[in-house]
């Protein structure tokens, strides 16, 4: 009998994940959820904007011109340069910086969530499956990190290591693993005593194969949902740290740094911060709406109404 043989009682707990979905069912579900469809459309536009930023931006995001500083939206310079969203405090084009800032938000948000998810899921699988002293150590460490305020931890680490995109991603990634770890552990605890896991043990299947072949596929649903919401939280965290001057270097355009640059000019030049704030709000709202739809779609109790 091979390991792939189906044994009596070996079944997946979440039948909605094990049964093949009808073709295009996910697209049909998305079409019925108009807000989610709009959210996906917005995120596609944002992704395309970030990928093709050099082609879409009218000017260099770092080019300065003190003669053109703090010009209002729609202003045209003497040499014919048109600035649709105006210029900032050192004459840089706001629209170009807004477009290039999309890259940082997407890269930081997605990469940090991928790091956090990988670490959290692995720790959660090991903790929930093996239990004992390993479970105690991992969960106590998670409790300590979860109790420590994130912003203070990030400020302390980045103040020592210095600013930079890579360092920012690492800080956000290592900080976010706790949520994934706890959810993964709780799912594994409910799965490891199920019949299909016991049947796999009975035929001598290795622990690693049981964990990654039979248990891991059954916890993807909640993990994907958490990840969709965590991308939005990570984008806000990046903006917050950039606002405090602890994110990426000052010359690198980010939405958070644009908010920080314009906070002292809100009464005379509100456009310096408004556009970046609106961009953050739209992207975060779109991600949350799409994440809410994914949660409902993966929930077998709601599959008939999504």
Q: How far is the first residue's CA from the last residue's CA?
A: 40 Å
* Tally of individual domains: 1
Tell me the name of the CATH class: Mainly Alpha
CATH architecture: Orthogonal Bundle
What overall form do the CA principal axes indicate?
Answer: elongated
Percentage of residues in DSSP E strands: under 5%
Sketch the major β-sheet: 2 strands, antiparallel
Low-confidence stretches: 1-20
**Helix fraction?**
55-70%
Description:
It is a single chain. With 306 residues, the protein is an all-alpha fold. The protein has a single domain, classed as MetI-like (MetI-like fold). The protein is 66% helix and 1% strand. It has 14 helices and two strands, in the order H-H-H-H-E-E-H-H-H-H-H-H-H-H-H-H. A two-stranded antiparallel ribbon has the order 1-2. It is elongated. 36% of the residues are buried. The N terminus is likely disordered.
Question: What keywords describe this structure?
Answer:
single chain, 306 residues, mainly alpha, MetI-like fold, two-stranded antiparallel ribbon, 14 helices, 2 strands, 66% helix, disordered N terminus
Q: What can be said about this structure in brief?
A:
The chain is mostly helical and 306 residues long. The protein contains 14 helices and 2 strands. Mean pLDDT is 79; it is low at 1-20.
Give the SSE map.
Elements: H1 15-18, H2 25-32, H3 34-51, H4 53-56, E1 75-76, E2 82-83, H5 94-130, H6 132-147, H7 150-161, H8 165-175, H9 177-191, H10 195-202, H11 207-215, H12 220-243, H13 255-262, H14 271-298
Antiparallel strand pairs: 1-2
Helix pairs in contact: 3-5, 3-14, 5-6, 5-8, 5-9, 5-12, 7-8, 9-12, 10-11, 12-13, 12-14, 13-14
